[in-house]
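Q: How would the structure tokens look for this protein?
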Amino acid sequence: MSRFRLRRADLTGIYLLVVIGIGLLFLEGGMARAEEAPILEARVSKVLDGDSFTLSGESRRIRVWGLDAPEWNHQGGSTATSTLRRLISGKHLHCAVLDVDRYGRLVAQCILPNGRDIAAEMIRSGAATEYCRYSGGYYGTC
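A: Here is the predicted structure in token form.
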């Protein structure tokens, strides 16, 4: 008889996936169901602007779901970009892919290793706002 043992890191990963899944269950129409959302787990390789970045090993860019940040070349854009960079650079993220946008980017709700939602942190910082058209008020600011 074999024994199945989980390491602490495995339990943390499972916990984060459960948290993401529960959060996704509360999303409104048009969003993927939690059990259908593909999960990406990788380290951030580059922050592109205040609401998009790349992950190691993933060729497509990631667009943070529910977040609206000014572009890097618009007023407030450099602040949003630097805030996201400080928040996620080099971190290992857990991202639930919910959609693909018109530019081919993966639209994902992403969670930091400590369980914090990236969009919620950016909104809380004031560097970006909730993208109410797509979030359906998920972050409570619409």
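The chain has a mean pLDDT of 84.

The longest helix spans residues 8-25.

Upvote if useful.
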